[in-house]
Task: structure prediction
Amino acid sequence: MRKIVLLSLLLTITAACGNKAKSIKYGEMSVSDLVASKGEPIKEEEIPRPDGKMYIYENNEKYQIENGVVVNSFKNPNKDEKMLLYWKHKYEDCHFTIKQLDQKVLHLKPEEEYNCKAAGITLIYDPNIEQVVRVVEYAAE
Result:
């Protein structure tokens, strides 16, 4: 009985890993490839960029399109991704540059931008709540 449960669990994990969404190749992926991978967006907005649009999906996940190509994405982090330590472990070989963003409220600490160009990721971290509040992905350098 125990072997059946373990085998069942293994098959479930394998199936879940095999159903991962097609990875986004920023600067290369076309709009039609994005729609084929993610589905139709909930909303589409014009932005002030050359042939620029923003495709908006559930959970405020956004993809910036320029000249028919996906150039970057913005998303709210999920539960684990809210911890800065999660990202430092995930990209442990990447040197993050840290920049303080403009302070909006005088009695709060300003948000910080953690940028790793080699991995193509920027994190917006709020030290007041000790959480990553936004994740930006783009073509790695």
